[in-house]
Amino acid sequence: MITDQAKHGIAEIFCQAARTRLPATAGDSCDITAVPMWDDAHPAAPHALALTISSIAFRLLFVLHFNKDDATRAYYVGGDAAGSLSESLMEFANLCCGYMNQQLVNYFPDLGMSTPYELNSACVGYLDELHPAHVWAYELLIGGTARLGVTLCLCAQAPLDFRAELAAAADSEGELELF
Question: Which CATH fold would you assign to the domain 4-156?
Answer without folding.
Answer: Chemotaxis protein chec (3.40.1550)
